[in-house]
Amino acid sequence: MAGAYLDNNATTRVDPRVVEAMLPCFTECYGNAASSHGPGAAAARAVRGARQQVQALLGAASEHDVAFTSGATESIHWALQAALELRPGRDEVVVSAVEHPVVLATCAHLARREGLTVRTVGVDGRGRLDLAAYRRVLTERTALASMMWANNETGTVFEVVSLAALAHEVGALFHTDAVQAAGRVPLRLQGTPIDLLSLSGHKLHGPKGVGALYARSGLRLPPLFRGGRQERGRRAGTENVPGIVGLGRAAALALEHLDEEATRVRALRDQLEASLLARLEGCAVEGDTASRLGNTSCLTFEGVDGEELLAGLDRAGVAASSGSACASGQPEPSHVLRAMRVPPARLGGALRLSLSRDSRPDDAARVLEVLPPLVLALRAGRVTPPPPARAEEGVSA
Ligand code: PLP
Fold first, then answer.
1. Could you tell me what percentage of the chain is helix, strand and coil, using 3-state DSSP and rounding each to the nearest 5?
2. How many angstroms separate the alpha carbon of residue 73 from the centre of ligand 1?
3. pLDDT given at position 127
4. Is any ligand 1 atom within 6 A of the Cβ of residue 44?
C-alpha cells in the first residue's frame, strides 16, 4: 500500500488543472499586467478573470473586494494594520486565544509598537468561543476583532457572521482568518458584516506564495505597499500572474467540490475517527464535533508522545501533523489545546489528521493499519524512534 498524505491543513497538492491554467502564464501570457500593450492587456485580463473566480468563491459583492497578496500571512498583516488606520483613536484589538500564530504575533507586535491593548477571549473544552467574554471585551475602544473562521488544529468553526455583527455594535471592524475555511465551507460574504477576510492559495489545491485579502465594498482599504498602481494603488508590485491565475482556478474548482468536502470527505473522516476510537482506549477527539470542518480530526492519545507518534507514522508512510509547535528544539503543546484545557495526560499526545478531496479510503485504511499498533507499542515503550528531522522552529500550519 502506498503512503498516505493526511496533512492537508498544512498544505494541499496543487490540482493538475490549476497547473494547466498556470503554465501558459510563464511562456505565452507573460506580459506585465501593468503594461498597456497587447501582452500586458492579456495578462491583466487573466488577473481579472482570477479575481472574479475568487469573488465567486467568497460570494463577494464585487471583484474589487478582492486584493491579491503573497499569502494569508501578508493578508493578515495588511488587515490588522488597515483596521488600526481605519479606526484612529481606538487602541484595543480583540482576538481569540486559538488564533493562528500569525494573528497572535502580529497583534503582539502592534501592541508593543503602537501601545495597543490586545484582549484575548478564551474557549471552552471543545474549543468554542466564550461568547459572554467576547461581548464583555468589545467596547468603544475596540478598533478590530479578529476571529478565525475555522481552527487549523481542531477544525472548530466559529459563528463569524454573528461575531462580526457584535463587533459592529461597538463600531469596531471585523477580520476573519478563513485560511482553513475557504474551499471547505460556503462563505457567502455579500451582505454580511464581515469587513476583512484572509485566505491562502495552497490550502485549497492552489499554488504557494499567493493569497487574497477581501475587504468589503465601501471599506477604504489603506495601501500596504506604496509605489506602482497595482491592486488599485493599494499593493504596489508587479502582479504574480501565474500564481494569481492558479489561485483563481483553484477557487473555481473549490467551489465545484464544496459538496464533496461536506459529504464524501466528511464521511471518510468520520469513519476513520470512529474506527480509531473503537480500536484504541485512551483516545479522544478534540474540538467541537457539532461544528467542525469535515476534513479535520484532532486526536489525543493518553500516555503517548505526539512527536514520537508522528515520527513513527512518517516511517510507515503516513504524513500527519502533531498539535505542537517546536520552539528551540523543545516541542511545546499547542496553544490551542492548552487554551481548551486538554488534560495533561492527553496534551502531549496530539495528532492532527487532515483530509482533502484527494483523500481516498486507502489513506484511511493505511492509518488504521499503522496507528493502533504504533500507539500500543509507544505506550509499552517498545519503540525507540530516531530523533525526528525538525522542520523550521516555531512553525505552525
Ligand atoms: N492562518 C491559518 C489558520 C493557517 O492555518 C495558516 C497556515 O498554516 C496561516 C494563517 C498562514 O498561511 P500562509 O502560511 O499560507 O501565509
1. 40, 20, 40
2. 6
3. 98
4. no
| Number of the ligand 1 atom closest to the C-alpha atom of 71 | 16
* Catalytically annotated residues: 326
Give me the domains of the chain, ranges plus CATH numbers.
4-12+258-380 (3.90.1150.10), 16-256 (3.40.640.10)
CA-only gyration radius of the chain, Å: 21
Name which residue leads in pLDDT, 3 or 4: 4
For residues 49-61, give the mean pLDDT.
98
Does the C-beta of 230 come closer than 6 Å to ligand 1? no
Asked if 129 and 169 count as a contact pair (C-beta separation under 8 A), the reply is no
Q: What is the pLDDT of residue 327?
A: 46
Q: Which residues of 64-204 form beta strands (DSSP E)?
A: 66-69, 92-96, 117-121, 142-146, 173-177, 196-200
Ligand 1 in reach of 7 Cβ (< 6 A): no
Confidence of residue 322 (pLDDT cuts 50, 70, 90): confident
Query: In the predicted model, what is the mean pLDDT of residues 285-295?
Result: 97
